């Protein structure tokens, strides 16, 4: 039942909420607008809101300078690849924890989550040296492995909470119906958990896309993802605010759109199913 | 064929002993009901037979073959779950076909058997629906259909009717009984409802705290309960029990009289129990009187539907002397 | 409960995940600990051998360590404070009857999707730059001297950026929790004569406790390792004013090529994280029925 309120109250709340929301959104909006301005307009002492001389030259300049498409391609490969790899390892593990729990299951889950708490810097140096010796530095597959490892605990935890909601009866019914484990997982568990697996996938693609520690420290030119791409804009060279905005927009647009479309599934995933 | 033998079957979860030691013989084609209060181990026993749980000791024989360690899929049994456990992402047709698909049956055979099951269970017009588009009774039928197509040695039912409303429950009860008469396959049926047990079973196993209190036909249980527990559990409303002096008159530690085995009188009769009606439940066919008997406590009496007692009425009760059950100090029937 | 067979199967299914995570934890960590007791510099290859506690004395003894530790706590604490309190208020606001709720959610969550270096650069150049940033323009509009945020308030500026990124997360989690509060419970409270403030304290807040724990847990995991925001804005400066432990290790180990000292810093970072983790797991373990 919706609460009944008078129209003026509703108008008041609407205005207040939109004001706060737009304030939060302002940096993104401002970047969007600046990306289409000329450099001189972008840093003019009396700022303009809408671009006066609408231009796409910033985007061309960014591609020219740092090869956006190569970085974007790397980002896609690393984030999607690591998520799929994580799901392949994570689905069986989550199945085991959700449907054949032991006294230690909870401890193992907590331990897995605690690996996320280990600060990356604690292992940066050995990883850096190992990668150097194995010639994995600045490679896409090296980065994919790291990304899989850092997101695996989250993947398992999310899948676990989704799987827990599937009545164990149904899996037992499959067992009674003569299904081997493989068939039980492929024909019964996975189809039933599709929404959960989808939101796990989405959240992890986003987390991997935005990961900015390993991508920056372990790559330089070849395997750089968009986080490395954008970091190369951190030291200003000449007139650059508009180009920086264009680069920023290019870096966040794909995931922003993905996030907007999947917002509902994501929020549930983000809470590890703990908030209903 | 589908005879099931349990020999000294034990089950404990860690420290907690659920089933101390059970030996049972279920004949081929029998309809056996496991009945008992919640937590008595009846569902656990069923799951042990199904292979969904390991035994902690003892042997389970199916058709004389030791299946104690066999996985559920190999035992050739079919189970109908309390929650129906239908696959929500499959159509009714695919649900019923699933066990056959797992057994890699050829397509024509699958179609034929699904067709047969659908006809038997009146599911023909729902075959392409998803389970969530079905009513509770229809879901139950799909679950049974899924069990039928396997042509199992035995059917296992785990409280299959407890999620249905009262009217539907009576219907499904009849349908399952009919199905049994038609298929003549062994069925084990778990319930906490003694009415279901009495109406459906060839033989009933009464379980309490993991022990078999009695194993016999419904009427045997009603007429010759082995002990006070069975006497109290079978029959509705429950048997009335009396301890102390009144029992000692009959050379027993306690005696029991079923609600239907009393004669009622409005006028004082010497030597019978005197009481006051607290509540009279008028069902039309019967009237249940709850009577506070002097010195003996609250008793339930089943009277004729035409009796018109109300709250506060005095009543004199004469138990039918031939139908007084006597129990010793350990609760065993004498 | 299940059969022994299922349990054996379960262990096999869990093995790959457990093994890779164990390796991922143990091998590099053991190496970090090993290096932390070695003289190991990429610049000076002649310096080798066992170092004893020298690396630790060097790292912990340095005033930059204390400052980084304090900065880490301020960073985590500050962001948590802003996002939890701000998030609750924003969630309460968004939970009111209003027009365009769906669109509002999308607008509000947007900052969460912005990758850290972009967030940092947008704020640094588009907003906090004293010359052409939006805030500079705003200050000038009011006749004030524009602030050079990253030089004058480096740590505060980083907190603002990080809080901006995480406020949407907190808000949406709280909003989800709020919307799961049954209308009947609210109505019952209203019938019982509770006013808005009482309802907030006695009905809404207890209901939100669980989601607050979750927000704190998840955010802390990420906030302890804040890196990119510092790297692209202040570079940890001026001096060590905005260096947290994570960035300090990076500075010592990678930028100064002192593997030994960097590793010692890494070990200390792990210990600190563990202290926080144990503390948090205690609090959350009770709240999360895993």
TrEMBL record, chain A:
Predominant subcellular localization, coarse grouping: membrane
Top-level lineage group: Bacteria
Membrane-protein topology: Multi-pass membrane protein
Transmembrane segments: 12-33, 76-96, 108-131, 143-163, 184-206, 212-233, 240-261
InterPro entries referenced in this protein's UniProt entry, alphabetically: BP-dep_ABC_trans_perm, MetI-like, MetI-like_sf
Domain ABC transmembrane type-1 span(s) in chain numbering: 72-262
Keywords: Cell membrane, Membrane, Transmembrane, Transmembrane helix, Transport
Cellular location(s): Cell membrane
Similarity comment: family membership: Belongs to the binding-protein-dependent transport system permease family.
Protein name, entry field: Carbohydrate ABC transporter permease
Organism: Devosia rhodophyticola
Upper taxonomic lineage: Bacteria, Pseudomonadati, Pseudomonadota, Alphaproteobacteria, Hyphomicrobiales
UniProtKB/TrEMBL annotation, chain B:
Record CDD domains: ABC_MalK_N (cd03301)
Keyword ATP-binding appears in the UniProt entry: yes
Superkingdom to which the source organism belongs: Bacteria
Residue ranges of every copy of the ABC transporter domain listed in the record: 4-234
Keyword list, A-Z: ATP-binding, Nucleotide-binding, Transport
Alphabetical list of InterPro entries matching this protein: AAA+_ATPase, ABC_transporter-like_ATP-bd, ABC_transporter-like_CS, ABC_transpr_MalK-like, ABC_transpr_MalK/UgpC-like, Mo/tungstate-bd_C_term_dom, NA-bd_OB-fold, P-loop_NTPase
Magnesium keyword on record: no
GO molecular function annotation: ATP binding
Family: Belongs to the ABC transporter superfamily.
Name of protein: ABC transporter ATP-binding protein
Organism per entry: Devosia rhodophyticola
UniProtKB/TrEMBL annotation, chain C:
Family annotation (InterPro entries): MetI-like, MetI-like_sf
Domain ABC transmembrane type-1: residue ranges: 69-280
Residue stretches spanning the membrane: 12-37, 73-94, 103-123, 155-178, 208-228, 259-281
CDD domains: TM_PBP2
Membrane topology: Multi-pass membrane protein
Main location: membrane
Keywords: Cell membrane, Membrane, Transmembrane, Transmembrane helix, Transport
Subcellular compartments: Cell membrane
Family label: Belongs to the binding-protein-dependent transport system permease family.
Name of the protein described by the UniProt record: Sugar ABC transporter permease
Origin species: Devosia rhodophyticola
